[in-house]
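To fix ideas, we quote verbatim one protein's residues and fold tokens.
>
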Amino acid sequence: MNSIVFPIADYWWVIAAFLGVMTCVLLVDLFAFGLRRIEPSFRASFLWTITCVSIAIACALLFWWWAHEELTRHPELLDNTHWFKSGPGNAARELFFQFSAAYAVEVSLSIDNLFVFIVLFRYFGIPSALQHRVLFYGILGAIVFRGVFIAIGTGLAQFEWTLIVMGAFLILTGIKVIRSDAAVDANPNPDRNILVRTLKSVLPITSGFRGRRFFVREDGRLHATPLMIALCVVETTDIVFAVDSVPAVLGISREPIVAFASNILAILGLRAMFFVVAEAMQRFYLLKYGLGLVLVFVGMKMTVLARLFEDGHFPVVLSLTVIAALIGGCLVLSILFPPKPAPASTPSEHAS
């Protein structure tokens, strides 16, 4: 049974309008923070994080209203979907809950991205004042890649066997996250990155940073700077994360507008969120278990749990409740039961 209510071929203008709004938001971010040559303050980053979350909430509510109005005018859109008996009001409300659940999952996975970015920035020794520039252009690239992956994913999701494959992949990924000793590789090796290797084979690399520039011309030749190398690693890292996050969001909603908008809104606030939680993120040491369990849960929905219900559809409100409980519970437990500090070494341990 088809689950797409608003096909992109007919509602491409909704995505276009959404991207227009997101472009305006990114321009505000660029001119308010990106063009300043100082490190963003905690207060400014916190306010921008709240602004991005508020924009996401507003978009979700606007989508709810628009879906209700559109389905009321064109109830035939619900034909051949599991909402055909529910009516426009119930369908619009459930789409809103799908939007909220997908956004919650993507924000949670984006927080996990920040662990990787912190390690990468430390590895490259990127000054705090330059980190915003890398993150800003990294987000621009992420929007393009997520759009491509979601377009492919929603197309494949129309085939039942692909849902089973994606669900099994999420279950295995979730188990791997739970069993991993650390959230990220503490010793990254950019030389193993295919994009970095390709760039180095084409262009020479400067020995140090050249201010805020990604490329410079020295001795008559174009050189890439370490800032460009860091951007390449950030972009490819996001592609790797998209392999997990896109199936996760499609496990919640196969509606292209919902999947794309929730995904982009989640990464929209990633830049500001980085500076808000960079110093406190180590406190959330239990987050990886929550993320792993969420991936397992979504994978189980796609493969087993949905088939336990008569209409083959797992209730979205229950799904949102489970996701919020897993992520919120792990964050609260991380605060209530902070990790024990590593035991200090004794003088005898240093003796040889």
The chain has one domain: 8-337.
